[in-house]
Amino acid sequence: EEHASLAGDKSMDFFAALFPVEYVFSVNELAASQYKRKPQKIEKIVVFADPHGDLPAASQNAVWLERMHGENIRLKTFVNKSASLENFKKEINSSDIIILSTHGLYDANNPLRSCIVFSDAELTLGEIFNDLVITNNPLVMLCACESGVTRIGNEDGAGGISGALLSAGAACVLSSHWPVEDISMGYITEEFIQNLLNHQITPSEALYNAIQNTRKLDKAAIVGRCQELLTYMSDKNQASASQGATLKLHKFKMKIEKSDNPVPFDQFNIWGGLTINGCGWHI
Known about the structure:
This protein is α/β, with parallel strands linked by helices.
């Protein structure tokens, strides 16, 4: 109700729509972030995308990154079956930016079972806390539903999955506090990486700019992206894309076409759940 009333007041806007914001979950986490704080030189980006063939925009993001990354940046992409937990553990300590464009699951009954989904296994919050050690202090992008959810009073540690990754050694984590939509998240991911690579700004500034640009996208641009993805999925090399994912994308395209909103991604539920956690990463 609070969101609805505020969104209806044209004289007001959400704080995150006006300023870049970084979050920390506790004084201890702030201290740990500052300890890890160091200038970062982006030399290697690793992408894990669409492990089960139902996130076409995530797969296309990996293709887009292969086309646009600079000559001085090494890029490794793991898509569909290769987007495995085994490969993630091999790459985690040699990367500057890790992009996880996959599914996230929050378990309210047993928060330590909340997880990030890979093609071969799930990485649970409990496993991150107990077993994962990250030595290279990377920026981690969790382009996954509910990857930033935490509950006060639940035994999920400070800050859920994103907080666990910070405790394990990540310098900064981008995550979402509610379900993300594949197409809009694809745009935001592209804009976010471009901002980091081309404008030498902080992750919170990069996310702020990415959100602002995505909010301005008109219906024609979004419908065009949907059609590109449908063509991409129908390619003979995309046999892993499920019929359900294709049907879901068709329905989303029709929804955008019928929308009365000339800028459909301006809605708060599209971008409002994305946050930057930790302040240990800067250029």
